[in-house]
What we know:
Chain A has about 500 residues and is of the alpha+beta class. Chain A contains 13 helices and 23 strands.
Amino acid sequence: MKIKFTWKIWLWIAVFILALISIFITPTFLQKGVIIREISQNSSALEQGLKLGDVITNINGQEIKNVEDFLKAVQEKENTNEKVKTIITTKKAEYTIFSDQPLGISVSNLPTSNLKLGLDLAGGSRAFIEAEDHKLTKQEVDDLAQIIENRLNVFGVSDMKIIPVSDLFGNSRLSIEIAGATPSTIKNLISQQGKFEAKIGNETVFTGGKSDLSVTRMGSGVIVENAVQSSSGYFSKFYFPVTLSQTAAEKQAEITSKLEVNSTSEGNYLSKKLDLYLDDKLIDSLLISENLKGVVTTQIQISGSGSGATAEEAEEAAQNEMKNLQTILITGSLPFKLKVVKFDNISPTLGGGFVKYLFLAGGIALTLVAITVFFRYRNKSAIAPLIICTSEIIITLGVSSFMKWDLDLMAIAGILAAIGTGVDDQIVVLDEANQKGNSLSMKQKIKNAFTIVLGAYFTSVASLLPLVLVGGGLLKGFVLTTVTGITLGVLITRPAFADIVRLLQKENAS
Amino acid sequence: MDKQNFKEKFAKFHDKNYKILLLIPLALLIFSVIYLTSFYMQHNDFFYKDISLTGGTTITINDENLNSLELKEFLSSKLGDFNLRQISDLMTKKQIAIIVEIKNSECNEAEIQQTKTILENYLKYSLIEGENSTVECTGSTFSKDFYKQLGVAILIAFFLMSIVVFLQFKSFIPSLAVIYSAVADILMALVVINIFKIPLSTAGIVAFLMLIGYSVDTDILLMNKVLKREGKSINQMIWGSFKTGITMTLTSIVAVLAALLIVSSFSSILFQIFLIMLLGLLFDIVNTWITNVSISKWYALSKEKKKNEN
């Protein structure tokens, strides 16, 4: 049998191949190794220059192909308490780490596709924030996005998406998405105004932000104390040094020079304390030693505390509070009070199996469709919907990975919707083409089929498009994939399918 | 021969009774409208809303051994409008987590902390976000806003869709019939959802919009065929389009039903979407192959009559 493909069929095949490329040819295609997803802040790996996204191929001469290999190689090291040498080879360079600490790196297998799972499948957090008692302008939302991105960066979050969104009613909000497991402190970090003030009495000595101070984030002087028990659980204090600007230090000297000295059994201190406020809430009061009276000193210590039900929790809370406070001191305060209006937090454990079951559902549904179509036509055309639909799914996924859209649950619902429409359209084309007993030419028959297909297409698009505007794009994923799916169907797969049907008919006739 | 005989008999029956057949969908429609009106009077809304539309706080406690009934009893005196759900593993059916939903609250950190403390008192351990629990919230003001926007979007959707349909047929009655069928599918499916007291989520509302696409294609097919007959009889064209259209609807129903059964255990969102589509598709059989067949026949015949009179 000799079938000459038309250009429409070739176009379909070409797009299909492009889609496969777009999905499966990743930047690390055919490579072996593991990719770095997280590095702890004070690890020697970070100091040595390892970065997020680096691909580790070898540790101490052992080839690393997957996460298991990596864990095995690392575990051998971590069982000893002495300083050990670890040689890590990445694609770009070789790093030698000499430490008695755990490596502080977490890795994942190299991605096998470019598909990006959305928050509800991959896990992560999303917050919508807006200003309290104030309608944000476009400019303000953009500025806000900058500051919050900065904060999250300083805090150590790298995999995030911050998008200003506006909705049907003209409200501007900020949408923040953070992939993976997210500590609860993030919620504070993005919604806190972060107005930090250090006061002696009623006088402000200095505030947060670069103009007044610079923060020491690790090293000497940065301390989280062992937790102590109190009446309501445990609490733990933290300290870290900051360097005041000359102006701020002079102001402090001027204020302290007017204070008296109180003698206590624990030492001599000035009559007033240095009170630290965050968003008008007192977080700590520091005694000022008598020898600082009237002295211009740029080195001072900031402190605070965390509490919890166990000692461990309290220390962890203190650690987080400290990081939070440091971040806010570095990045400064926001010009208005914010509030979170929506916060979603999806645990990543749900995701993996989920996608598998969705594919199962899709496969079974398609097979049943093929069986139904077989009962109707009782010939091999029953496989047509299977082939065409699979290609349509792949083409839509190809577009979605090329455009870097997130595949969330609603987007998958959208793909399913588009496939359903695809099957319907194919049945229309098949029935029109197989019509007997009238004098219409094949071309006319296909044209009739397309009148119906296009009519339904435009009606569907018209009914879906308004959803894009709702609620700052919460349903955008759904609309984009559905409309992409049915548009590609109408433009590429349907014409190709019609040509295939035409060719098959011609072959049958001859 | 038998088949041919049946077809002829049925055609005769239909020719005689097609106007009377309209009473069936009319009764359904009247019931739906009355039901929804009284529902609206009672609830001040057209359906029950779930937490994604009312706003509220969801606390997921990852605890395999937590007894949901005991927890429910404990909470009933301490929390306002709340709801408990259980999440289980897909394969082993073992409990993974318990979800506590509190409706109609704002995303208020102090309030959430209060709820957490109540839960912690029962659990006897502390809830650490990201470790043994997750907390989500949607401010009810935000949700109300979102809900209103969905309403506006649905109105715009129907408006745009009507324009597209009118442009296709350029005559009033066929266009109206196509639009009517979409509206009727939605209304009737909604009545069933309400009867079973299923609270709708955002995804559910989107599913109703998806229904438009599935509903109109069979109607557009039918109207196209009956209006552009090319020498065949009306009954022949209706029969032809019925064969095509019912295959379309049946394939969709089969696919949706299979998907519905599979996802029911692990995604309440997808379950709702498929359930609504299934209901809509079932009603579409009535609204297309009884209602619109009769309307199109009536319309085509009366047009023919006019033509002959001239």
